[in-house]
Amino acid sequence: MAWALQAYGSVMGGGRRKGGGRGGRGQRGRVQMDRGGGHDRTLKAPRHSSQQEKMTRSLQDECDTEEQSPDQDQDQDQDLEHMDEPRDEEEEGEDGEDGGEDGEEEEPEDEGDEDGEEGEERPKRRGPKKKKLTKARMQRFKVRRMKANARERNRMHGLNDALESLRKVVPCYSKTQKLSKIETLRLAKNYIWALSEILRSGKAPDLMSFVHALCKGLSQPTTNLVAGCLQLNPRTFLPEQSGELPHLAPGPAYTGGYSYQSPGLTPGLPSPPYGTMEPPHIFHQIKSQPYALEPFLEAGFDGPLSPPLSVNGSFPPSFKHEPGDYPYPGHYGSAMGGALYGPGGGANVDGIMAFDGHQHERIMNVQMNAIFQDS
DNA sequence: TAGGCCATCTGGTCCT
DNA sequence: AGGACCAGATGGCCTA
């Protein structure tokens, strides 16, 4: 029974095939899990499927009352047949505990018994004697491993849940188009910085400055997503001042199809995939709008931040990119064809909410207004 | 088909 | 000793 769980483990994920030479079982089926990854992927089945939960529960049960027939062992643990023997120290402690349980499996620990049945002459090994990997030991090892796997799964699920919570509080939460993990973290970082910058300066930035700051280091699709959110609901992002957003460009300015696409590479800066929202690119479509970017951006980030979006000197020198922070090898960039909201030029904002609905929006506005009343 | 993203497994290390 | 955390490896899914 427990080996339904072993199979479960194999089904749920490819798993690492250590040593590379292990045959495995070829292509395995896999439960359709959350395949939300990717910048513009549509979401699939919820991750916490009842099946998975059932399996996990079953795993726990099985771990408590582990019984297995030899043929099951043979049949369902082909991977483990080739597994390296567990570390000696792991096994040492266990024999005392449950020696009675697998007493029939234990074999005498003769020197010659250790590694070879061929009877070849070998130099004596130093160190603790290696105990033969009996079935019972193997079984305990598997149980431990399964428990650890289950814990690790749960841990990662918790991590993903936290990330999902974060997605909901950063701008542009969408139930149908999830930000990737890395983009969520980047956007959150930018958002925190932008808000703290507002607090620091006590001034409300104009919308373009704000979105500019939010989109630093984000990929092109995410940048477009943020821009789409802003277009839909700019007030979510910026505090109301006298009932109006002073520098907010009117709607049509955003539908002019200006693009954040990268103008090109700068030597030494691996920048292309990240939206390059350089002011000239942005504002050539909205020249009539006040250019209030600098006051908001001049403060600069103090800490390590997203990679610089702009390579034309618009950003303060404190913008430093972190090595290895550019995982996108130019995959996006011009792929967007210069259209901000998608190939067709229309806003690709289906299902996008700026934050998680209006409630959150109200809360944010209250908070933001409170900030400005205080300052 | 390549690349991005993801979930999972796994072994090592550190901590309680 | 057992659990948490971490990073590497692996394979599946999806999109351009």
From TrEMBL:
Protein name as catalogued: BHLH domain-containing protein
Biased composition (Basic residues): 15-28, 124-139
The keyword Transcription regulation is assigned to this record: yes
Oligomer and partners: Efficient DNA binding requires dimerization with another bHLH protein.
Comp. bias regions, Acidic residues: 61-78, 86-120
A biological process from GO: axon development
PANTHER family xref list: BASIC HELIX-LOOP-HELIX PROTEIN NEUROGENIN-RELATED (PTHR19290), NEUROGENIC DIFFERENTIATION FACTOR 1 (PTHR19290:SF134)
Protein source organism: Knipowitschia caucasica (Caucasian dwarf goby)
Amino acid composition bias (Basic and acidic residues), ranges on this chain: 31-43, 50-60
UniProt KW keywords: Developmental protein, Differentiation, DNA-binding, Neurogenesis, Nucleus, Transcription, Transcription regulation
CDD domains in UniProt: bHLH_TS_NeuroD6_ATOH2
SUPFAM superfamilies, A to Z: HLH, helix-loop-helix DNA-binding domain (SSF47459)
Gene Ontology annotations for the cellular component aspect, listed alphabetically: nucleus
Ranges for region Disordered: 1-139
Molecular function as annotated in GO: DNA-binding transcription factor activity, RNA polymerase II-specific; E-box binding; protein dimerization activity
Residue ranges constituting the BHLH domain according to the UniProt record: 143-195
Keyword Transcription regulation (UniProt): yes
